[in-house]
Structure to design on (514 residues):
């Protein structure tokens, strides 16, 4: 896909600018080459305005992602903030993660795998079947291949990592969660919206028929 | 803030520091490309010179390039018999060291280095052949269009733009083009701006821009663009076709409306704070979204 290789070039450059410590290699994939970045991020590096940051993530308000992957309370934030009880459960927010990031530059959303700390099955939540994280509902057009780069995806990935830290330590997944139930998906996703699996294809051309079969429903 | 002071500040923020890293990198790359071309075409000893926005004084930080022109003598066939062969042989000479993207008459260079894969070097190599003597007229290969070639003259082009007296307006319109992803080529936008601002050299920047956008909005069909290097010979209609005109006209109308309803910051954004402090770390805004996943 010619457009895909161009988008990959743009992502490679953007990653170099925003995640300069990530190493890049290229590997053969089913369709063309795939870029693979490996590197470490520490999404929370200070307790300064941490309460506000976690509240903003919980309420889906904008946050500021610094080059390298640190997430901060947004400097332009003008919201009032709430301190939640679960915050007391977050004992050590300064967790570093080793990530593997994959992208072909095409329609498929990039994939981010957490390689360390090891995600044991009972510690996995909001991940795809292959173990890659799923930071948003793809059909909501949060990420579009012709508009966004891997760096934009990484912004959502580091927010997901913070949600995971809170969940791991305080037992609460902050922010809204969408059901994985196939019946819900069939009812929620329009035929022409992106499929929930992150393929970048329209739902009707990807998992719709399979989901309808499993749920016995039709539209 | 005064609108012209604002536009001047935007122009200032788009300057490339001549001693900055970008310019140092550009010069290093340029020298590497020149060395490579001289090595590969040693017997032909091509004329290698520099053009592009840097030479014309219309460089902006968000869209700058350097043309490395590589012209062969009219009676030299060392690099190829035809213009197309010259173009392809220059491409072959570069392809082991760079990722080469074909443009209609030029070859864009990007990095092959695994750590910088695909990084744009902002360098276009433009192969060509002198028409006869040494007056600077050359033929370039042209991958589109009927003739398959284009007559041009680097010095005429540089002089036409550099001496136009409207390079400030050209730079701002290039920024406008970049911010709005317009498809008009820089070269055509430069010619068009110069044409529309004839007699308005002494106007203020804001007036010049308004005039250009009003003409684009109201009279885009009436705008004529001629190549100063070959006014009657080069048909630029393909580069200034109906789609491009419609795009310009629509965006010009939107821009004028933005200025009228709001202010110039809607067009070019706020003047960036001066950087350079190692404490300033770039970043971007993310709006957290509902989590979803199979498990």
């Amino acid at each position: 896909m010619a457009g895909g290789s161009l988008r990959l070039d743009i992502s490679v450059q953007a990653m170099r600018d925003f995640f300069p410590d990530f190493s890049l290699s290229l590997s053969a994939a089913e369709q063309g080459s795939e870029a693979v970045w490996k590197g470490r991020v520490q999404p929370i590096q200070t307790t300064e305005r941490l309460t506000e940051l976690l509240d903003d993530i919980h309420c889906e308000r904008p946050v500021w992602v610094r080059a390298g992957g640190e997430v901060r309370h947004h400097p332009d934030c003008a919201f009032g903030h709430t301190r939640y009880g679960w915050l007391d459960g977050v004992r050590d927010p300064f967790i570093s993660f080793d990530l593997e990031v994959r992208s072909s530059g095409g329609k498929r959303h990039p994939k981010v795998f957490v390689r360390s700390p090891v995600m044991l099955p009972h510690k996995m939540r909001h991940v795809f079947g292959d173990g890659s994280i799923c930071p948003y509902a793809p059909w909501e057009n949060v990420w579009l291949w012709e508009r966004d780069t891997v760096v934009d995806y990484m912004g959502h990935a580091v927010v997901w990592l913070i949600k995971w830290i809170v969940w791991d330590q305080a037992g609460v997944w902050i922010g809204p969660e969408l059901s994985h139930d196939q019946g819900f998906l069939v009812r929620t996703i329009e035929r022409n919206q992106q499929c929930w699996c992150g393929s970048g294809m329209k739902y009707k051309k990807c998992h719709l028929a399979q989901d309808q079969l499993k749920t016995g429903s039709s539209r | 803030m005064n609108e012209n002071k604002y536009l001047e500040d935007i122009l200032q923020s788009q300057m490339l520091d001549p001693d900055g890293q970008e310019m140092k990198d550009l010069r290093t790359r340029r020298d590497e490309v020149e060395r490579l071309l001289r090595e590969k075409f040693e017997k032909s000893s091509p004329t290698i010179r520099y053009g592009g926005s840097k030479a014309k004084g219309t460089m902006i930080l968000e869209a700058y390039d350097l043309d490395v022109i590589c012209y062969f003598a009219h009676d030299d066939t060392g690099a190829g018999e035809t213009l197309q062969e010259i173009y392809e042989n220059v491409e072959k000479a570069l392809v082991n060291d760079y990722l080469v993207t074909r443009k209609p008459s030029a070859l864009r260079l990007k990095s092959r280095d695994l750590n910088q894969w695909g990084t744009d070097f902002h360098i276009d190599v433009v192969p060509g052949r002198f028409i006869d003597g040494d007056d600077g007229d050359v033929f370039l290969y042209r991958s589109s269009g009927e003739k398959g070639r284009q007559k041009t003259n680097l010095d005429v082009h540089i002089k036409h733009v550099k001496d136009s007296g409207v390079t400030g307006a050209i730079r701002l319109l290039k920024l406008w083009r970049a911010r709005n992803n317009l498809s008009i080529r820089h070269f055509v936008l430069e010619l068009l701006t110069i044409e529309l601002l004839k007699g308005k050299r002494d106007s203020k920047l804001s007036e010049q821009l308004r005039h250009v956008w009003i003409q684009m909005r109201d009279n885009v069909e009436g705008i004529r663009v001629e190549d100063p290097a070959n006014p009657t010979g080069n048909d630029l209609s393909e580069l200034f076709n109906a789609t491009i005109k419609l795009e310009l006209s629509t965006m010009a109308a939107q821009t004028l409306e933005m200025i009228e309803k709001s202010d110039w910051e809607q067009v070019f954004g706020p003047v960036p704070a001066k950087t350079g402090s190692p404490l300033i770390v770039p970043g971007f805004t993310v709006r957290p979204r509902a989590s979803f996943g199979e498990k």
